[in-house]
Amino acid sequence: MALSARALGAERMYLHPPDPDLTERIHALTHRWGGDFEVEGIDDWRRLLREFDGTVVHLTMYGLPLERIAPRIRSQPRLLLVVGGAKVPFELYERARYNVAVGAQPHSEVAALALTLDRLIGPVSRRQFTGGTVRIRPSARGKRVVEKEAPP
């Protein structure tokens, strides 16, 4: 989830329950590949929802269709996208400003996040990651990862 969130334009990920090892791995990856993505472990997701100063959007397969609701969500200045699992407490549906259906069939949470970020932020090809120590050089065949030159 964190890799997709970072690559597709999210600024931060809240992780419940906290996982220091995963947080450190994502921090190292962000340092290597660039960008400002942050991971923060939280003990109380309800508190996060209560205190978040913005619009809470719950990605599910039971809500309003993404295609219909995306323009309204896109206009919000601050978003918290909540991606749950198979047994999301009903309380989350009640606390979210929007419950958004990313298809009305079972699918992966990562797919829901990826599609939503694409609809809200735009194509991956437009993203620029500052910093980092490596970058990919596009190639029709093979993998070309190059080290960035250190600034003088």
From TrEMBL:
**Is Methyltransferase set as a keyword in this record?**
yes
Q: Where in the cell is it found?
A: Cytoplasm
Q: One Pfam family, short name please?
A: Trm56
Might you name a Gene Ontology BP term for this protein?
tRNA nucleoside ribose methylation
Q: Which reaction does it catalyse?
A: cytidine(56) in tRNA + S-adenosyl-L-methionine = 2'-O-methylcytidine(56) in tRNA + S-adenosyl-L-homocysteine + H(+)
So what EC number does this one have? 2.1.1.206
Tell me yes or no: is Cytoplasm among this UniProt entry's keywords: yes
Its keywords, alphabetically, are:
Cytoplasm, Methyltransferase, Transferase, tRNA processing
Q: Which GO terms describe its molecular function?
A: tRNA (cytidine(56)-2'-O)-methyltransferase activity
What does UniProt give as GO cellular component? Answer: cytoplasm
Under the subunit heading, UniProt states:
Homodimer.
Its biological purpose is as follows:
Specifically catalyzes the AdoMet-dependent 2'-O-ribose methylation of cytidine at position 56 in tRNAs.
By sequence similarity, the record places it as follows:
Belongs to the aTrm56 family.
Tell me what this protein is called: tRNA (cytidine(56)-2'-O)-methyltransferase
